[in-house]
Amino acid sequence: MNFQGKENTANTQQATAGKHSLAANTKFEQKEREAESLNEQQRRQKNIDNWMGESPTDEVFKNSICLVCKNRRTKIGWKRDFSYNAATEGFSQKKFLSEGGFGSVYRGDLDGLAFAVKQHNSASFQGEKEFKSEVEVLSKARHENLVMLLGSCSEGNDRLLVYEYVCNCSLDQHLSKHARKPLTWEKRMKIALGAARGLKYLHENNIIHRDMRPNNLLITHDHEALLGDFGLARTQHEDSEPSLETRVVGTLGYLAPEYAECGKVSTKTDVYAFGVVLLQLITGLKTSDKILGGKSLVGWARPLLKERNYPNLIDQRILESHDVHQLFWMIRVAEKCLSKDPQKRLTMD
What we know:
With about 350 residues, the protein is an alpha+beta fold. It has helices spanning about 1-50, 85, 130-140, 170-175, 185-205, 255-260, 265-285, 295-305, 325-335, and strands at about 95-100, 105-110, 115-120, 150-155, 160-165, 205-210, 215-220, 225, 235, 245, 265. The protein folds into two domains: about 85-165, 2-Layer Sandwich (Phosphorylase Kinase, domain 1); about 170-345, Transferase(Phosphotransferase) domain 1 (Transferase(Phosphotransferase), domain 1, Orthogonal Bundle). The strands form four sheets. The chain has a five-stranded antiparallel sheet, with helices on one face. A two-stranded antiparallel sheet has the order 6-9. It has a two-stranded antiparallel sheet with strand order 7-8. β1 (about 95-100) and β2 (about 105-110) form a beta hairpin. One of its GO terms (molecular function) is protein serine/threonine kinase activity.
């Protein structure tokens, strides 16, 4: 019996020692995993902190972080090479964002950085010339109200543009009657001012956008407006006369009369399109809305503007919440932007 008791005691001690050893191993493995996790977090954070690039003179945009979803903008001057295919999971449908005139747009994620990859559509009306134009223009354009180009790729028939990711869709979706939450007047004002600043920067740098419209105005959850899609942009020499183009490009409903009819393009063609966008922010209507009875939005609005029948212009969704003085100011600005005579239109200054 004593022998059996000693054996039981020994077995108990071994079991206890085994448990302590297992617990120690488990703790060690847990610490190893925590250390690996910490190292991974530090590595990712280092990549995020390096979004500026290597130049110490680079700056951060004022609107660098979305306060709602915490999406971070890259810092001014940041560029790097991407493995596009891996970052977008082979351009899978679950990464698909939208379809534009240039091609399909997919979301990519790499080391904590979200970005948008625009995959060129070889059958697109916009071809190699427009692709090179967009790369040339966007590589120089750096402003808090412009979508920043991060990189590009052109190999054979594969042409890709990589932009910073903007977290809250485009303005047209927020103005839609199907939008879950209509834009308040305050947010519409903020978007209009942001778009104006972005366009002003382009014009100061002798760049004409040529496709200013809500689809190309991307919005953050803070309702910061970023002007994007420069596939049709072109440069204009300072103080030069409006140039003539044999092929009119852009979107119907936003084309200035002199551009649509005679092919004359200048910064004032952008101003006209900006006036149409303001009209959409005021009315909440599309340029070819059913309520317009077959007319264009501008054609429908001109008599109301001339008669100063402003109440009939206002989007019913903001009828009780708009600021009367700000609304009057926006309507007057829109009216001057939409002048048929380009010389009478406002500038973006």
